[in-house]
């Protein structure tokens, strides 16, 4: 039998029909929706007079357009379009019997944080959502990726999707990461290495001892952000850490179902002789804390570097937009705002790490800093550990959950010309506000920048003050 990659095995296990060598119809185990990308799909479904085929395989979450400051009702949301999107999602879920985690549900949060919170992402599943960072669930050994509106409608109607077969690509992170190096630094290093389209058309499998050493939430960061390197799918072979992470959560399998999952995980990996169309190897020991200098996630350098000389017209435009000068030390770049949040870096481990940097220190004068936990579940867990007090004492705002400043789609929008240290995944022009300038980095690096008022190597600060 031909040796297979894990991606190919998962595709085989969910194949309903093979249309041609490049297209396969896959069954979808879980479909996740939000208020932003689902309305048109439901409208198309209703126009065709179709029903949702498997409501029990759907989950809807409010996360993109909601404010993160306290409100008591949807009526308090100032943006009429946002209110309508939230209300429309609720109406559609009621009409079709779909579970909705709405704005006032104690489980609410960013969809890619909520699903793991609940224990709904399991090894071997197919999970799709109208959001590109659905690849997050690859950290559990799931085949997961983002889809468009027409595909959302197709899943609602059939619980299947036409899938274009991807080329398997292995990214091996070898060696041992040094002190202060996070999963965010690792994935930023990979993207800087391969470029913004280096994994286009590929299903990326992360491997290597540095990946195995990461905890599950760090692996989620890898799978989440490799989309910015062009990957359509990201996956990591599941292990005991994954099972430990899932076990005991409210929607985790129980009894015989749990034992069956444990048994499946044992052989859930690429065959030793499997062939990958592309191989990339990165030594974790060579990675330093990274920040982006431009307007694409692959425009990143170690924070102790100088702003590079532009080599292309696009790089020259990026420097102009960012207001930087070639040869300028990155550590000389001052910030106006610091943001810790997003589906990439707003989990409990991220907040713990940032709090360790902030403990006993204060945000620099003139810097506005906010922390937005990825879900109400994460927020409650952080508060139980007293992390909220650390953030507040340092001068951060402690917010409710949602996508917040990751994208300019709600109340948390940066002003033109403001410069941000951000734990998000995209630094495109206008991503966090028209004319706003975003520097991507890890949560600990955001904390360090907030304290000093400029881009800073977190390793210089050491532990708590």
Give the total of domains.
2
Annotation field: number of helices: 16
Radius of gyration: 21 Å
How far the N terminus sits from the C terminus, by CA atoms, comes to 59 Å
Q: What is the residue-averaged pLDDT?
A: 97
Please give the share of residues in helix. Answer: 25-40%
Find the structural class using helix and strand composition. alpha/beta
By oligomeric state, this entry counts as single chain
What's the CATH class label of the largest domain? Alpha Beta
Q: Numbering strands along the chain, what is their spatial order in the largest sheet?
A: 5-4-3-6-7
CATH homologous superfamily of the largest domain, by name?
Answer: Aconitase, domain 3
How many beta strands in the DSSP annotation? 19
The description of the largest β-sheet is: 5 strands, parallel
Subunit structure: Heterodimer of LeuC and LeuD.
Family: Belongs to the aconitase/IPM isomerase family. LeuC type 1 subfamily.
GO molecular function, one term: 3-isopropylmalate dehydratase activity
Function: Catalyzes the isomerization between 2-isopropylmalate and 3-isopropylmalate, via the formation of 2-isopropylmaleate.
